[in-house]
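Mods, move this if it's the wrong board.
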Amino acid sequence: MRGRINLKEITILICLSIFFFFFTGCDEVSPVSVEERIEMFLNDLSNQEYSTIRGDHIHPDAPSWDTLNSAYWPANGPWKDFPLSLNSTNVPDTSSVTVNITSSLGTSDYDFVMREEEEDVWKIYSVTGYF
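Not the wrong board. Structure tokens:
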């Protein structure tokens, strides 16, 4: 009669549990620095990837979250003048990040405010004068 689980079956169950935990249960978020986030944001703008910009790059607590939909980007600010080129990023403090961008209109500095969404995952909270 087979009513009990033997030591071999327990060992197999433990090994399978460990395997699934390490290979399917650990969804670790990759860190994204302030500089990386701004570069990714500008690349998506240049590639006109408007539908993903808000979710991918804007902090969910941003004061303008509701207005920053896919229709916002091609109609407002320097984001509509292509190509966009990141010249430099100065990060003395995440509440005032100076970003030098070149577009078809010329070269200008923009003040970004960044916030962590998760540990070591930075997103754009605002850009002074734009959102």
